[in-house]
Structure to design on (141 residues):
C-alpha cells in the first residue's frame, strides 16, 4: 500500500503516524517511515516502540549512529526492552564494541520471552554471545 493510500483510508480521522510508519517500513520506504515516526513522537514523545522502529529505519538507510541513539533513548524509557537490546547489540558489534554488545545480548536474553517469534533471535543471540566469549546462563531456555 502506498503512503497516499494510507491517507485515503484514514480520511476524516486523525492519522495514526506510528501505524503509518510501520506500514512504510514493511514496504521498505524507510525515509517516509522516519517522517511518520517523527510525527508520531510529537504526540507521544516517550514511546519506546516508535523509537525502536526509527532505529530499524535508520539502520536500513545507513545511519547507524542515529539508530544507536534511537535504541538508547528507547532503553532509557523502557530499560528491559528485548528488541532494543537485541538491535543495539548487533549495531555495536558491527562497530567493534564487543563488550557493550555482549552486555546488550545478555540483557536481551534475560528479558526475551521464549516463543515462536523470539526463538530464532534467542538462538542467534546465544550463538553470538558464545562466539564473543560471554555467558548466557541467565537466558531463557
Amino acid at each position: 500500500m502506498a503512503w497516499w493510500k494510507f491517507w485515503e483510508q484514514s480520511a476524516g480521522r486523525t492519522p495514526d503516524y506510528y501505524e503509518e510508519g510501520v506500514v512504510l517500513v514493511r514496504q521498505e520506504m524507510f525515509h517516509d517511515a522516519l517522517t511518520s515516526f517523527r510525527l508520531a513522537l510529537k504526540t507521544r514523545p516517550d514511546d519506546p516502540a516508535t523509537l525502536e522502529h526509527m532505529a530499524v529505519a535508520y539502520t536500513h538507510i545507513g545511519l547507524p549512529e542515529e539508530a544507536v541513539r534511537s535504541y538508547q533513548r528507547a532503553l532509557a524509557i523502557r530499560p528491559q526492552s528485548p528488541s532494543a537490546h537485541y538491535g543495539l547489540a548487533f549495531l555495536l558489534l558491527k562497530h567493534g564494541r564487543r563488550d557493550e554488545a555482549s552486555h546488550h545480548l545478555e540483557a536481551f536474553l534475560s528479558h526475551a520471552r521464549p516463543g515462536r517469534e523470539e526463538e530464532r533471535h534467542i538462538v542467534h543471540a546465544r550463538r553470538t554471545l558464545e562466539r564473543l566469549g560471554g555467558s548466557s546462563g541467565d537466558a531463557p531456555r
